[in-house]
């Protein structure tokens, strides 16, 4: 009965996670072999039982790394390769009956390993030791994931698991420079509608890690791939596919913090200022009167976020931005048509930021 099997697998995980010291060291190897054997047995399901067994083995690995189990990932990959009965590396193994299911089971195991590490309660020194040990296994994981993602024989299900596995491992702060080629492969997956959502999530996760800004050259190498999505974005917008485009104002704020980390080209930032000033502009009085109180509050918060982003931009552009804004104001004052629209002309002085710098008056439109 699946429910009983799930209970047994969950109990096994709890015992390994919380009462590891109760298991004699001489029984560790036998338990490892048994867990691998059961994961292979349940590779075709039930899924909930398979996942709990994978979590149990991942927890065991975290208790043994690195002294008693120096290369867990490499050993796991070998264990899931097609084996002859009673082979030396996998005693008691049976001929591989379902390579596809075994591949998915291996990917599940490799996905939950970093997740179990992240959720485990560990002393700081032990966490650092495990992180370093797992990072040393990344080369094995990366090579396998690239091979599966590029293979024409890989099913959509396998490729989706590859993408989720990558997301799990980049959470270990694997340097972007070491995931660059695999992230580039993820852009190829965007052309498959069945993989699109997962591929987007994986790419965003990979380039949103805290130390990614150290890899400016890698980010720049990805820019042509991002720009290459223009036609796909345009088509989705024309078809009204909002799930793909996300071109509404409720999601555009997600990009605001991104611009602070992408300190590459100043002209891009000046264009960003133009866009932000336009987005912060109030609508016509007739349209604004139709807004609900919630809409008005969300717009107020949105403009506060924009003002913070402009402050970040000022940290980079400095006096050049002030000069640009003053020139803009001068042109507006000299243009009779523009000066008639208060939404374009209005200025406000936001709370002044000064850390050895001149005060910055945001050129933004307010009511």
TrEMBL record:
| Claim: Nucleus is one of the keywords in the record | yes
The keyword Calcium is annotated on this UniProt entry: no
**Major localization class:** nucleus
InterPro entries linked: ARM-like, ARM-type_fold, Exportin-1/Importin-b-like, Importin-beta_N, Importin_beta-like_NTR, Importin_rep_1
Question: What residues does the Importin N-terminal domain cover?
Answer: 3-40
Subcellular location per UniProt equals: Nucleus
The source's superkingdom equals Eukaryota
Q: Which UniProt keywords apply?
A: Nucleus, Transport
Boundaries of every Exportin-1/Importin-beta-like domain copy: 46-203
Q: What is stated as this protein's family in its record? A: Belongs to the importin beta family.
Q: How does it assemble?
A: Interacts with UBC9, RAN, RBM8A, eIF-1A and PAX6.
Name of the protein this chain belongs to: Importin-13
Organism equals Goodea atripinnis
Q: What is the lineage of its organism?
A: Eukaryota, Metazoa, Chordata, Craniata, Vertebrata
